[in-house]
Amino acid sequence: MQHAEENVAPPRETTCWTASAAGPALVIHGGAGGRIREFQNLPEGTFEQALRASYEAGADVLRDGGSALDAVCAAVAVMEDDPLFNAGRGAALTADGRAELDASVMAGGLAGAVAGSRHARHPVFAARAVMERTGHVLIAQPAVETLTDWDLETVEPDWFVTLERSAQLERVVARREATNQHGTVGAVARDAQGRLAAATSTGGTCGQWTGRIGDTPVIGAGTYARDGLAAVSCTGHGEAFLRGVVAHDVVARLRYTDADLRGAVLDTIEESLTAHDASGGIIAVGADGSLVVAYNSAMMLAAMPDGADLRLMA
Ligand code: ASP
């Protein structure tokens, strides 16, 4: 059986992109580490187009005066439906070939998450339902009846399993090549009222133990948002993000030190990832309008505003 620690990719020098936006703003990511081998031969621009579609779904919400929470959920739901990304349909599979999906959201001092979800078509909506309907924060393996009660669309577990991910798992199990592929999708936003929100969704790491839960559904590790400070979504070696409580650490640096958002993100990557030989990436939006995408992995799929344009990282 593949052991989670074997998914550690060696860290590289950190790459950091920043921007600032006076009004509503959105940043999305499609995972640190990029494309699995099964997607290497897709036509040029395929990933850029997919990132743009997700970004536009979230940006449309903000343009229409919608909330940051609606925007991050809309952006993440698009990537959950797209088999290119490790979330929802096309998620990475566990060692025994199952899709076990984790997701979380945070906004307005509230948070919700699901772990090991197998039936919600959009795990991010299930996470939001936990936040808005249960009074709890984290529910494991929400039942079909529960999801139906929450008016969410359900699917059979096999619906998430794609040929490409099955092939990836076969490679990993056969150990014919390194397995250090990162995945996960996420979004952070600030709306016209200055409210902040973050959402993250993943299938975890390819070949992970059945039942393994990474940082994504753990509030403070993979996702965190606090009005007045920042919203953060993470991707990468989940165990390192859990140990470093990374998303919360970024926000805590803003709260308790003089760091700006860029410095808070870079110091957190250095201390929680690079120093522990782990890799990954962080996206963040600050209450002050600052936007950050930073990663010490080989690459990161992401999109952020760049003046009037969109900067696509793919
Ligand atoms: N952080 C995710 C997890 O460990 C995977 C990733 O982002 O690559 O489940």
Q: Care to describe what's here?
A:
The structure is a single chain. The chain is of the alpha+beta class. 29% of the residues lie in helices and 26% in strands. It has eight helices and 13 strands. The strands form two sheets. The chain has an eight-stranded mixed beta sheet with strand order 5-4-3-7-6-2-12-13. Strands 1-11-10-9-8 form a five-stranded antiparallel beta sheet. A hairpin with a 2-residue loop joins β3 and β4 (110-117). Mean pLDDT is 94; it is low at 1-7.
Key features?
314 residues; alpha+beta; 8-stranded mixed β-sheet; disordered N terminus; binds aspartic acid
Global outline = globular
H/E element sequence: EEHHEEHEHHEEEEHHHEEEE
Q: Mean of residue pLDDT?
A: 94
Count of alpha and pi helical runs: 8
By DSSP, the count of extended strands is 13
Give the strand line-up of the largest sheet. 5-4-3-7-6-2-12-13
Q: Report helical residue fraction.
A: 25-40%
The Cα radius of gyration reads 17 Å
Q: How much beta, percentage-wise?
A: 25-35%
Main beta sheet, described? Answer: 8 strands, mixed
Which structural category do the helix and sheet elements fall into? alpha+beta
Distinct small molecules bound, one entry per kind:
aspartic acid
Contiguous runs where pLDDT drops below 50 for at least 5 residues:
1-7
Distance separating the two termini: 31 Å
